[in-house]
Structure formats: C-alpha cells, structure tokens
Amino acid sequence: xxxxxxxxxxxxxxxxxxxxxxxxxxxxxxxxxxxxxxxxxxxxxxxxxxxxxxxxxxxxxxxxxxxxxxxxxxxxxxxxxxxxxxxxxxxxxxxxxxxxxxxxxxxxxxxxxxxxxxxxxxxxxxxxxxxxxxxxxxxxxxxxxxxxxxxxxxxxxxxxxxxxxxxxxxxxxxxxxxxxxxxxxxxxxxxxxxxxxxxxxxxxxxxxxx
Length: 210
Prior knowledge:
There is one protein chain. The protein has one domain. The protein is 74% helix and 0% strand. The chain has 10 helices and no strands. Helix 1 (2-20) crosses helix 9 (160-177) and helix 6 runs parallel beside helix 9.
C-alpha cells in the first residue's frame, strides 16, 4: 500500500512538471485562451522578484499584484492540453511563479492546483486508450532522455510544503477521478518516475517515505 502511495505521488510530480502550474483545464467559454495570451498577461503584469520574501514587502504593490495574479490564474485554468504544452515549452509561467513571494506562491497553487488536478484526471479518462498510451510513451521518452530528471530538480526548488499541497490535491483527484483503466495505463510511467526519484533523493519520494 505504501509503495502504491509513493508511485502515485511520483506521478503527481510529473503532472506538476508537465504543467500543473500552467493549468490543464479544457477550454472554458467561447473564447479560446492560448499560451501566448497567458505570456502576454505575465509580461504586462511585470512582477518584481519577491521570491526572497515570505510575505509582501510592499502592501500597496501587493494589492495590484494580487489582482494580476488572480487574473493570470483564471487564464491558466482555461488552457487546454495543446496550449499547456506550449506554455510549458516557453516557461513563461514557471518564470512568473519563481518571482512570487512565499505567500503568493501558495495562493497561486491554491487557485490552480485543485481544478487542474481534477481536470487532468478527467481528461486522461476521456482519452482513447491509444492516446493514453501515447501520453505514457512520451513520458517514458522524456525520462530516458534525462529531461524529466532535470525538470524535477527545478521543481524541488518550489519547496516541500508546496509539493505536499500538490501531492495531497493530486491524491484526491487520482482516487476520485481516475478510472481503473487509467490507473492501469499509467502504471509503467509511475514505476519509472519512482526510479527517477530514488536516484535524485536516494530514497523513495513522498511525505510518507521520510
């Protein structure tokens, strides 16, 4: 049982790396939101780097940042799979996230992760088996190329508290949203991710493994 939990949490870290911060929700409403639109909003917001602070150092600036952050989170939640991949490639959202204060990081995760995790599992369930196979094959390919390990190392910089929040929400979505078939299809990827995490940390990944 503990090993299954570890494997599930390893998969959830893949979800984070592959764009959970960038969102995985299907298009909402009639207007399609693109990665370019999110990037444009991030550029216009022009956040200063507050990553060294746990709380906003300037309250007046914090009010404006809070409004912009919530607007960007709303757009992020409306990205579809294709646009999420573009957002992942250009790293605009990742760079934006790294400029946030500790408080803002938690807020952004709270605004995006629960919905993103649920939509991610629902979207995987909705895929034909051959498309889920392609998803797994792509993940395996990135693991073998070393790309996933490199991105995992960056993801760990987000902090244990944030990763545990993401893992908790992902566990909920996994058990509540994913079908038995989806869980079986993802099993090889989960096994491989667990091996990567063992290599990075010298032990199995997950809050319960410490």
